[in-house]
Write a structure and sequence with these properties.
Elements lengths: L1 H50 L10 H25 L5 E2 L2 E2 L4
Antiparallel strand pairs: 1-2
Helix pairs in contact: 1-2
Length: 101
């Protein structure tokens, strides 16, 4: 009977790990959708900026902002693509595996 007291927390802990993993994927998917919305807003602002008459002293660098959004989306996509491949062998961070020193 005392074995059950040790087994129950282990089972509960193992069930919590996939839920945390799914939560991270869900949150990153939400970030991707928000980045899409941000890009659409940026495109609308750029179109309005092109319609405005006269050039101001300051300007917003729409090309750079678009590139930054693209880079963030690419990084998130690459991370999400790596998740199923990692398994239990190690966690990839910045192109390196922990413990591969």
């Amino acid at each position: 009977m005392s074995r059950c007291y040790f087994l129950i927390p282990a089972i509960l802990l193992s069930l919590a790990v996939p839920a945390a993993f799914a939560s991270e994927k869900d949150e990153l998917a939400l970030v991707m959708r928000q980045l899409d919305q941000l890009q659409a807003s940026l495109d609308r602002a750029q179109a309005l900026s092109a319609q405005a008459s006269g050039e101001g002293r300051f300007y917003f660098d729409y090309t750079r902002a678009t590139g930054d959004i693209r880079a963030m989306k690419q990084g998130i996509s690459q991370y999400l693509d790596l998740l199923p491949q990692q398994g239990r062998d190690g966690y990839l961070s910045g192109g390196r595996e922990y413990g591969s020193d």
